[in-house]
User: What shape does this take?
Amino acid sequence: MSINANILDEIFRNPIAHRGLHDKKNGVIENSQTAFANAIKAGYGIECDLQLSGDGEPMVFHDDDLNRLTNQTGAVTKLSAGQLAHISLKNSKNSDVPQTFFQLLEQVAGKVPLIVEIKNQKSPEDKTTNDKANLMLAQAAVNIAKNYNGPLVFKSFYPKMLQNLRQAGFTGPIGIIITKLQPKSSMFRETSPLQRLVIHNLLHYMRCKFDFISCDCNHLDLPAVRLFRNFGFKTMTWTVSSQKIEQKTRGFADQLVFENYLPYRAKS
Assistant: This one.
C-alpha cells in the first residue's frame, strides 16, 4: 500500500470536527486553539482553514476579513501575523487568538488527522481572485508542512489551487471541494457557465489530479461525485450538523465533517 493510501485511510477513519470541536454558546470559537484541543481530546480529526497574512504567513482563519470572528474589521491581508496574534476571537472564553499554521501543527503534533482547506485569496479592494497570493499561500503552507509527522491533507474548491500545491512540491493527498454553485455564491459570480460545467462535472481532474472528494452534504447526488466514488475515490461530506443529516449521507459518502452535534465517538 502506498504512503498516500495509508494517509487517506487515517483521514477517513474517524469523523472530522469542522473547524475544530467548537461550541460558540460556551465560548469555544471555530478554528481556535481550544476547539482544536477539544477535538484532539475526543479523538476526532480536525478540519481547518488557511488565509494569508499581510506578511505572507498562513493563518488558521476562515474568513478573509475580521468582521464576523473578532471585534475588529478589515481584511486579514492588511495585518501581519504578529498583529493578528493580538486580536482575540470574539466571545472566546479563553481569549483565543488566530494561530499560525506552524502553531497549529505544533499543537496537533500528529495526534489526530488534519484536513487543511486552502482559501482562495482575494484582493481587498475589488474582491477578485489574487493568483499571486494564492500561489504564495500554497507555497508557504507546503513549506511549513514539509517536515510534519502526522496524517495531513490539503483541499480546496479551486482546481488551480490544487495545481499550486503540486507546483510547490506537496506530494501528499489533495482533495477537491465541490458544491452546486448557486447565484448567491462568490464562486458562481466569478466563473463562467462553461467553468461551472467543468466544476460540477469534475472535468478538471486531468489537470489537478485530486486524490479524494469533499462534497456538500446537500449535493451528494451530483452525478460526477457518484461516478468518481464508484471508481474508488473516497468522499467526505460537509457540513453534517445532526444525526438526521448523517443518516441521509450514509451510502453516499465515506466520511463526514461535522459540527453542532456529536457523531459516534472516535477512538482515541
The longest strand covers residues 45-52. The longest helix spans residues 131-145. DSSP finds eleven helices and ten strands in the chain.
